[in-house]
Design brief:
- The protein is an all-alpha fold.
- It folds into two domains: about 375 residues, Up-down Bundle (Growth Hormone, Chain: A), CATH 1.20.1250; about 55 residues, no CATH class.
- It is about 75% helix and about 0% strand.
- The protein contains 17 helices and no strands.
- The longest helix is centred in the middle third of the chain and has 30 residues.
- The chain is globular and about 55 Å long.
- It starts with 19 loop residues before the first helix and ends in an 11-residue tail after the last helix.
Amino acid sequence: MTTPAATIPHAVAKPGQPSPWIVFWVSSIAVFLVSLDATMLYAVFDSLRAGFPDATAAGLSWVINAYTVVYAALLIPAGGLADTHGRKKVFLIGVALFLAASAACGLSHDVAVLIAARVAQAVGAALLTPASLSAVLAAFPHDRRAVVVASWGAVGAVAAAVGPSLGSLMAARFGWPWAFYINLPLGAISLWKGISVLKEARVPDARRHVDLIGMLLLIVGVGAITLSIVEAESKRWTTFDHLASAGLGVACLGLFIAWAKVAKAPLVDLALFRNRTYAFVNLATFTYGTAFAMMFFAFFFYMRAIWHFTLPQAGIGVAPGPLLVAPVAVLSGRIAARFGHRPLLIGGALVYAASGLWYLFVPGVEPAYLTHWLPGLLLAGIGTGMTMPSLSAAAVNRLPIHQYAVGSAVNQATRQIGAVIGVALTVVLLGHGPLVRSDFTPVYAVHVALALMTALLCLPVNTRPVSH
């Protein structure tokens, strides 16, 4: 991995303070684990099905989606909690809870217990993520914001991309619980070093109220819509059940918006979306997050069901794409600092669409990894490196400083909600019995459509430096 340190040569520690890069890596280790966990279960889904034979694919999808929905909803108020109670304190509490919940996940022998442990893990992840970014930003000078945020985002992007390959190797070698146990040693290092390296900081006289009503409406809204999708082919559900679940979700999201307009301290400040760039970047983040989740989840279905790869073979097979993410992301950060994010966002989304077209038309039923799969995977890695960190950076580029933390949290939450929908759609399309090649046609068609939609949504984005 190309180190981002080379991109900020003037970032040096002040007397009596730790090196900013020590702060960066202590904070980023925890964020790496959070992003890793968000995608690792794509690879171990088959192992979970084998470990819980009585559970349905739709039921097991909540091991992934319960984490993602709760994480998305709590990310937004977590930044305010860090400002109020201290960023170091909230970060360390988040890391400790994440580690304890990871151990509980690995020890679970019941799907309901596993899902509950995943919810606790999501709470810890939500607490540590915005506090981590705040610590990193405080360690570096303001004029290095674009590159530092791109580097921080690149860590999460690499972890999200590496998660499936690492998860498959761990599950095949040691069993699915090790997809969670792997968090413990690295997380312990982040917790241990964070105690001594991080400096406490809070916003003076900050009094942040947690919008419990808004959180509940968002969780129920996204959860109900997701439930209606993953149970689309369930024989237990009637048409009325589907309509009722979807209707409840839409109603709750509508109430969420209405509540945000009148609440004194809403979960999401709708004034953020008056910023044209911010509004379009978040729409693009949703569509890209959905496509990203679908691509990685579908990869393992294809490798296992169509080409009959072993889980370790599939894990190694996915690795070349993620290896491109880090260097492309760091290079993209440098380009964005000079020319803005729009060229990278549009170009990256189009490259990502090209990867979907490749998968739609080229791979067949006979394994031909080097010629039929690898080119599409390299395109996906380049597209991800250009797009994912640029979305995070562009979202907050033109926001006032007092809206930076919550603006970043809303953007990350939007990507997580997109991932929930992506997982749900993939389970519906591929989570049934024996698969054939034609089952993947709608998956990749949706992938391409979402990538093209992302490119269109990025056309109004303007983060070009004023001096150019």
